[in-house]
Amino acid sequence: MIITRNWLSQIGGIWLLLLSVNTVNAQKNWASWSHTISTKGYEGKKFRVVADVRAEPSDDSAAARIWARVDKSSGYGFFNNMEKSPIRSKAWQTYAIEGNIDSAATKLVVGALVMLNGKFYYDNFKVEMQNGMKTWKTVYTSDFEKDMSGWDSGIDGGESMNGKNKAFHASVVPDNLRKTNALLIDGVDVPNYGDNKKAGKFADVNGIKLYYEVYGDGPALVVLHGNGGSISNAATHYPELIKKYKVIAIDSRAQGRSTDTDKPLTYDQMASDINELLNQLHVDSAFIWGQSDGAILCLELAMDYPKKVKRVLAYAPNIQPDSSAIFGWAVTAVNRVIKNSTDKREVKLYEMMRDYPNVPFEKLHRITAPCLIMGGDRDVIRPEHLVKMFQNIPNSQLCILPGSTHGGAWEKQDMFLTILNNFFMKPFSMPTTEDWFKE
Q1: Per-residue CA distances from 15 to 56, 344, 388 (Å)
Q2: What domain range is 325 assigned to?
Q3: Is residue 160 a contact partner of residue 195, using CB atoms and an 8 Å limit?
Q4: What is the CATH number of the domain that holds 407?
Q5: How many CB atoms are located within 10 Å of the residue 77 CB?
Q6: 335: closest CA among 21, 16, 22?
Q7: Strand segments (E) across 176-242
Q8: Peptide linkage before 370 cis (omega within 30 of 0)
Q9: Which residues is 231 bridged to in the sheet?
Q10: Which of 8, 84, 373, 407 could form a disulfide with 390 if both were Cys (CB 3.0 to 4.6 A apart)?
């Protein structure tokens, strides 16, 4: 489930419409430098930001952008960061963003945003305000001939850490193409989970190519993302997990970089894909952490391929696709996307969520591996459904994260990782208060 938010767009989970935490924020693979302009006297006017940009990306998905945000005394107005128009051209080109200054605006923040590894050049940065029907007045310009005066690291300036990243360095350098100086933002050794040429491989599995990445040493830990997600969804978690485990991160079929067939998607088929990959990697058994749809796969693996599973941490799974397991507003949202979407892949993924899984609670009795059922207390999965799954798994524990949604593993990351490590690495137990009262 996935819910999309402004700066946040990519956790992964059961509902593509519902919850996601953007790669931009998720794996700290980006950085920004910005300049702030007072909007006093420009309220209600149109503005535009113009800059010359070129990129020398080292990663396929690396890119440069320009961005602009109108701040108000409370909240934000206009915002555009060229999310759908990343710049990867090695030739200098001019790019522009146009917007409106809100009547309640206090400042306009503009800047350069870069993602992943490469060299990204900016020049002739200019902010203009509309001065008439067809005329514009320049209110700020920088050609970076001398320095970066007036520019701050990050997207907010001051002490805020938003957009600051030590993997990137900004400086004014000569540009050989133009024989002038330009702003260079250089990204080196930026984490690129989900699109890593060194760690990533494809396996021929059940008629598809299943993409996976392997990191670290130690006991094997399989990480499974949610519906519509990818390996990159858990990017913020990998640096810590790699310290203790051999992480095997997988793009489920039809998602991320993995391919698909014309057949309908089912969780049974996806669990078979994972089992076959583990066979090819000669992994006899592994810890498994799955988020949402990945949590469903955890349980499918534990039921159908028990020898492959040491322990399972299933965050927000469901074993029924209807309102007995999922809040009605989410069921309605899924049906709405199926009806209105023109994206065939999206519809296919949503149809799987609409129709599957259909697992009777009695089947959970098959699970012999220790299992931790988790969820947020404000999840899209009904808490009573999580409790009933917990009650039907013989060797199980239950954890409801307080003040958390379907993305609790990200919202309470430190708490979540502590619970994960304790569950996987410490002796499993199921103490009971009943023992206190025995004679």
Answers
A1: 36, 16, 21
A2: 200-436
A3: no
A4: 3.40.50.1820
A5: 18
A6: 16
A7: 180-187, 200-205, 208-215, 220-224
A8: no
A9: none
A10: 373
